[in-house]
Amino acid sequence: MGDLGPGDIPHEKTDPEIAKIVDKTLGTKLTDEEQNERHATDLTTTWFGFEEKNGEPTLQDYGRYSEILGNIPRTGGRQYPGLASFIGQTGAGKSTLIKMLIDLAKENDATSETPVPGKTDDELTPTSGNVHLYPDPKTIESKWPLLYADCEGLDGGD
């Protein structure tokens, strides 16, 4: 038996590929310009939110749910999407967690849309407004595709 961790739980070696993904997600330092570019691109993942119309807050659906489900290759039969929603304080790591889940589920070097995690040196500024929706690359073509909803931080926005 190997080393024991806290609570006498056996310590297991981390898969080097998983360690690379975690390091890439948590260790990436972006310039303000790179961060702003990623946020601009991330606007296409907005599912719904509030906009002011005639001085009143109005719920706005941006069509993201329909877009995702409409682009899934049909392999026959119905699909029953599941939704995992991440809700919490601004800076709690909601976007980072979703990004890691998607990055860990990707096949090889496939490209998938992922949230833009906040800067580690500015945890109180929200990185996104509204609610953004991301498909899980491992389940998207299955009968039970999983979608991740990344909600604006509880202290974020207007």
Descriptive account of the structure:
The protein is α+β, with helices and mostly antiparallel strands. The protein contains four helices and five strands. It has helices at residues 16-27, 32-42, 64-70, 94-105, and strands at 46-53, 56-61, 82-86, 131-135, 146-151. A five-stranded mixed beta sheet has the order 2-1-4-5-3. The model has no long low-confidence stretch (mean pLDDT 83).
Percentage beta strand: 15-25%
* Average of pLDDT: 83
- The Cα radius of gyration reads 18 Å
Which spans have pLDDT < 50 for at least 5 consecutive residues?
none
Describe the global form: globular
Helix and strand composition category: alpha+beta
Instruction: Give the oligomer, counting copies of the same chain as homo and different chains as hetero.
Output: single chain
- The portion of residues assigned to helices is 25-40%
Question: Total helix count?
Answer: 4
**In total, how many beta strands?**
5
Largest sheet: 5 strands, mixed
Distance, first to last CA: 54 Å
Widest beta sheet: strand line-up: 2-1-4-5-3
Q: List the helices and strands in order.
A: HHEEHEHEE
Q: Descriptors for this entry?
A:
alpha+beta, five-stranded mixed β-sheet, 4 helices
Task: Produce a short descriptive summary.
By secondary structure, this protein is an alpha+beta fold. It has four helices and five strands, in the order ααββαβαββ. Helix 1 packs antiparallel against helix 4 (94-105).
Please write out the topology:
Layout: H1 16-27, H2 32-42, E1 46-53, E2 56-61, H3 64-70, E3 82-86, H4 94-105, E4 131-135, E5 146-151
Parallel strand pairs: 3-5
Antiparallel strand pairs: 1-2, 1-4, 4-5
